[in-house]
Write a structure and sequence with these properties.
It is built from 15 helices and 12 strands. By secondary structure, it is an alpha/beta fold.
Length: about 400
């Protein structure tokens, strides 16, 4: 082990005996009492020394035997300690690619803030390289989202779509102006390759016969048609439900951006639950939906550039949290934001007992009283997060 105080947290002394790690309240921590000699020893916890060398340095400073080990334990319990050599074989392999790792160092530093175990941040970062994500849609949201995932170290990001690139598909971080007139899927995959730290092989390249197809870790439905994310067609999601493939919806409809729900088949609400719930609340919903789906618009759909970029960023963040083994707040909820205020808010999407996905069966009987029903739950709160977090961590 090569102990290292997590470098993502800036350090400052509050007084002679108390040190604060981190500036922002979300991850800041105060540690004390700490004497001057121990404070000097902390500067050596930079990942360049193993424990034997640190013990020698401690003795040279006049610190008693066991002081270094005690400090290591104290920092580890506080979640402030990282291991510069930890993370397992996959992390070791990543360290042997310095050009790739240098691109991913900001992501590794960020992961260290949410992973208290030493070496866990590098383990998660390395694990991303074996994951496969499919993005369905190559508009302003889809391509920016796909490029963000590839740039964050996800090993395989494939974009699916039809037709050719139109001028209004172009977006910073997504499809460049030079791609206008090209096939959307090919142009999108090229944008993903440009964003990836290690330039993955072109789509369709032969996989070595001894290498097993990893399957899809996540599908992100990011349609260019805003209606398909505002009111996703349940039948389009049925194959994903049947195969047990987690999927996330993201897109822009008119002046509103949508992220969610993240569907964990059989556990959280799906597009069918969303549709049935809307029909229960508004009997005219099916009539409106049929008109919207049958209408042929001749106009370019509204898709504010800042809004689409915000949606792509939030969706990428939720996707990465899930891929890293966490349960983001979009599981069983939809986050929405509208121009010009850009005020994000979440609305629960409840499992519907009539939906074929079967998620409602697992949650039956979990409500203990009428006071705990859906209408009393805070917007965005996931009532089943604790139960699901163990079920859906096996994919990393």
């Amino acid at each position: 082990m090569h102990p290292m105080v997590k470098p993502a947290l800036r350090r400052g002394w509050r007084d002679l005996n108390t040190v604060q790690f981190g500036m922002a309240p979300a991850h800041a921590m105060v540690l004390g009492p700490m004497d001057t000699a121990t404070g000097s020893l902390l500067t050596l916890f930079d990942g360049t020394r193993g424990l034997p060398l640190l013990r020698d340095e401690g003795r040279r400073m006049g610190l008693p035997d066991g002081h270094v080990d005690g400090l290591v334990e104290r920092l580890a319990q506080a979640g402030l300690l990282d291991d510069a050599t930890g993370g397992g074989p996959a992390a070791d392999a990543l360290r042997k690619k310095p050009a790739v790792l240098d691109r991913l160092r900001p992501d590794a530093a960020s992961l260290s803030l949410v992973t208290p175990e030493p070496g866990e941040a590098m383990r998660r970062l390395a694990a991303r390289r074996s994951l496969r994500v499919q993005v369905r849609g190559s508009g302003r949201v889809g391509v920016v989202l796909a490029a963000a995932l590839a740039g964050a170290g996800v090993g395989q990001v494939d974009v699916q779509d039809g037709g050719c690139v139109e001028p209004w598909d172009v977006a910073p971080g997504g499809l460049p102006v030079e791609s206008i007139g090209e096939r959307r899927d090919e142009a999108a995959r090229r944008a993903v390759r440009r964003a990836a730290p290690n330039r993955p092989p072109r789509h369709g390249s032969a996989r070595p016969p001894e290498e097993e197809d990893p399957g899809l870790s996540l599908v992100i439905v990011a349609p260019r048609d805003g209606l398909a994310v505002h009111a996703p067609d349940p039948s389009a999601g049925d194959p994903l439900i049947d195969s047990g493939t987690p999927h996330l919806y993201a897109g822009v409809v008119e002046g509103t951006g949508v992220v969610g729900p993240l569907v964990l088949p059989g556990d959280t609400a799906c597009a069918g639950c969303l549709d049935l719930g809307r029909t229960d609340r508004d009997p005219t919903w099916p009539r409106l939906l049929a008109q919207w789906r049958s209408a042929q618009s001749r106009h370019v759909p509204a898709c504010d550039l800042a809004l689409s970029t915000a949606v792509a960023g939030l969706a990428a963040g939720h996707a990465l949290a899930f891929l890293d083994g966490e349960l983001p707040s979009s599981a069983g909820a939809r986050w929405e934001v509208s121009v010009p205020g850009f005020d994000w808010h979440a609305t629960p999407v409840w499992e519907h007992p009539a939906c074929r996905c079967g998620a409602a069966e697992k949650t039956k009987g979990e409500q203990t009283s009428d006071d705990e029903g859906p209408h009393e739950t805070m917007a965005g709160q996931q009532p089943h997060a604790a139960r699901l977090s163990g079920t859906w961590r096996a994919h990393v």
